[in-house]
Amino acid sequence: MPTFTRPVARVFAALSAISLLPAGSVAAGQAADPDASLEEEAALDLGTLGEFLFFEFGDNTFGQYMLSFLLLLAAFVVRKIFIIAFARKLRAWTEKSRFAYDEQVVRALEGPVAAVILLVGSFASIGVLTVDDALRAFIHNAFQVGLLAILFWAGLRLIDVACAVLSDVAERRRLGIYHFIPLIRKTTRVFFLIIGGILIIQNLGYSVGSLLAGLGIGGLAIALAAQESLGNFFGSISLAADRTYKVGDWIQVGDRVDGMVEEIGLRSTKVRTWRRTLLTIPNKLIAGDIVENWSRMPNRRVSHIVGVSYETSRENMAGLVSDIEQLLRGNEEIDQKFIMVRFTEFGESSLDILVYYFTRPVAWAEHLRVRQEMNLAIMELVEKRGTSIAFPTRTLHLRGEADLHPEQGTRQSAGHP
């Protein structure tokens, strides 16, 4: 019987001994004490209670069962008090504090702490019972495994809170690591789960060293089977270190991949193409190929030819070139660092003006809007100069038969046959 139940047993044994005193002794006591009858009745009641508590059922007495039940009930009561009183008051306090993330920490730890209270109460409840050594050793190991599982559960929830804090900080400061935080979170959770699994296996009594040594025989086969997975994993690390792209970027990889990045994982990257299909590309292939990130453009280029008709005079051509350049110089949505408008070519059917500039908006829709506004304004300038946009034309000069054979016509006029 456990040591902390022995004082209770001694009390009940003393009470039982009182109930078994000889009748003469009790009578003598009654003659000496007028309240002996009341004490005898109380002793009989206590003796009956003692006999009930020490009544053995299996390997334990009813007293042990009642103590076990009371300990389990106390664990549930303490857990409920913690959830209602302490946790709620702590959450109310964190809502008023200046630190923005303490409430998330409290919410993350509330469940694990309540689970620890229930686990300790359950272990104490079972501890007062008499069981064999093998079962007691199993219960002890189960308690350790359960405690480790709860600790690692709390650690996983704190990892989520830490990644949320890191994400907010990176977003406010516009750090390049922002879009790789989901990848960091997944990697950290997997590493944490591996460490937790090793510790749990070790606490179950298995030798982790011998287990790993036994797996060494099949290590080569496992390494060959996991070659692609490891390549993709290291490819994702390379992409994260280089910050090649982030979620929301428009990238182009080779001839097949062209679209917006939707998700970056440990094994692959998902890209939404312009046809609205979803491509899943292994990170190993992306890390070994040329990646063109269109979203990293500081400005977006526009280069086209404005062809005007050959009827345009020299003065109007020079004035039109100057007008187009002044139009671009006066627009705030055009990057002013590099603007070029030049009369460059005598085309087959037009006088060609090169218009070369960069728009500050890089988003496709905004870029097209600025480009359209500039094109309409250039058309208006062409009309004001009294000329027009040229279109492909071809002039054919037809020559008669006399033009083709002038010598024959001369001989006929001289009287030759």
Number of strands: 10
| Percent helix range | 55-70%
Strand content: 5-15%
If you average the pLDDT, what whole number results? 76
Instruction: State the strand order across the main sheet.
Output: 6-5-4-3-7
Compute the CA-based radius of gyration: 45 Å
- The total domain count is 4
Q: What's the helix count? A: 15
Order of helices and strands: HHHEEHHHHHHHEEEEHEEHEEHHH
Can you summarize this structure?
With 417 residues, this protein is of the alpha+beta class.
What does this structure look like?
It is a single chain. The protein is of the alpha+beta class and 417 residues long. The chain is built from 15 helices and ten strands. It has helices spanning 6-19, 23-32, 36-53, 62-96, 102-127, 133-173, 181-203, 208-215, 219-225, 227-242, 283-287, 314-329, 364-384, 401-404, 406-413, and strands spanning 56-57, 60-61, 250-253, 257-264, 268-273, 278-282, 291-293, 300-308, 340-346, 351-359. The protein has a five-stranded antiparallel beta sheet with strand order 6-5-4-3-7. A hairpin with a 2-residue loop joins strand 1 and strand 2 (60-61). It is elongated and about 140 Å long. The termini are far apart.
Please supply descriptive tags for the structure shown above.
417 residues; SH3 type barrels; five-stranded antiparallel β-sheet; three-stranded antiparallel β-sheet; 13% strand; elongated; disordered N terminus; disordered C terminus
SSE layout:
Blueprint: H1 6-19, H2 23-32, H3 36-53, E1 56-57, E2 60-61, H4 62-96, H5 102-127, H6 133-173, H7 181-203, H8 208-215, H9 219-225, H10 227-242, E3 250-253, E4 257-264, E5 268-273, E6 278-282, H11 283-287, E7 291-293, E8 300-308, H12 314-329, E9 340-346, E10 351-359, H13 364-384, H14 401-404, H15 406-413
Antiparallel strand pairs: 1-2, 3-4, 3-7, 4-5, 5-6, 8-10, 9-10
Helix pairs in contact: 1-3, 4-5, 5-6, 6-7, 12-13
